[in-house]
Design a protein that fits this description.
With 258 residues, this protein is α+β, with helices and mostly antiparallel strands. The protein contains eight helices and seven strands; from the N terminus they run ββαβββββααααααα. The protein binds iron/sulfur cluster and FE2/S2 (inorganic) cluster (FES).
Length: 258
Amino acid sequence: MGQAVETKYISVEIERQDTTDSQPYWEKFNVPYRHGMNVISILMEIQRNPVTADGKNTSPVSWDMNCLEEVCGACSMVINGRPRQSCSALVDQLEQPIKLQPMSTFPVVRDLQIDRSRMFDSLKKVKAWVPIDGSYDLGEGPRMPERKREWAYELSKCMTCGVCLEACPNVNTHSDFMGPAPLSQVRLFNAHPTGAMNKDERLSAIMGEGGLANCGNSQNCVVACPKGIPLTTSIASLNRATTVQMFKNFFGSDHMVD
Ligand code: SF4
Ligand code: FES
């Protein structure tokens, strides 16, 4: 007769919320352990069998995900008190009970699912793109020196995950501060040879309400960013650029030619 194999369970506590405006509440789950699980696989297991640790039937937990390889930023949540991506959070590396909460900087849609619109709205506000609209073939883009391309590539890794906004004490429901990620994108697109055509507009956008002046230099963002983006260096560089821009705006120089 074969020996019975004892099932190991993972202890999970989830802060849930049924609608954007309803009160949050906690539920506990015991999820069967499998080797190599990440937080997403815990949530999938709960989705398959939505029963709490005390045997009560409940609704499946909602969350967002897409790429499953820390590239899209959709699956961000607070795991054991730290904002991060749930697809790259491995169960074996987490203390139990594993506590899952939605990021508090963004409105909750349901459970762990949040609405990151404020980040996308900020990207629109600062024109975080290179405008090359046209119905004809524009040919190849300008060449960039290799060192600059490598540098720009690091900044381009931002996945709009929201972790830096969650980590920043100055981004909250009482403030309209756009946070570090959109600011860093201004630096990226202003450094692009074609993107530089709209440099003035981007700088002016971050000199206004909710922009650069709201940064309190806590430096939490740069520590929290999963992509290692040099956010505080970007902010310091933009401080210099906006000071120059302020003088240009004030003296009305022909700033498109220098
Ligand atoms: S800068 Fe880093 S932490 Fe902030 S949104 Fe982009 S990837 Fe996420
Ligand atoms: S699912 Fe895309 S970053 Fe986790």
